[in-house]
Design brief:
With 96 residues, the protein is mainly alpha-helical. The chain is built from four helices and no strands.
Length: 96
């Protein structure tokens, strides 16, 4: 174990023993870790900022629309299904 890791582990253990880590808001819940390993390090902060602001890139917005359209397609009556299928195919073409 590296020296830094050892220091961190020791401090965490001491805080646990003192009860400083009890009743935290996220206690017992899994961490939501983003896999940003495919994003270059120089862009990670900017990507995180955009994500936290609720920005969705156009291609991801199209994919989301496509999934929603596919789900709705199966719920439509036969007459409306044809028109919806055309819209779905147009979205698929835009994504290709």
């Amino acid at each position: 174990m590296h020296l830094f890791d050892h220091i961190v582990e020791t401090r965490i253990q001491e805080a646990i023993e003192r009860g400083e880590l009890r009743d935290l808001s996220g206690e017992g819940k899994p961490l939501q870790l983003d896999d940003n390993s495919a994003v270059p390090e120089t862009l990670r902060a900017a990507y995180r900022l955009l994500k936290n602001a609720g920005y969705l890139p156009p291609e991801l917005h199209l994919r989301k629309e496509l999934r929603e359209a596919e789900q709705l397609l199966h719920q439509l009556p036969e007459g409306e299904r044809c028109r919806a299928r055309v819209r779905l195919e147009l979205l698929q073409l835009r994504l290709a």
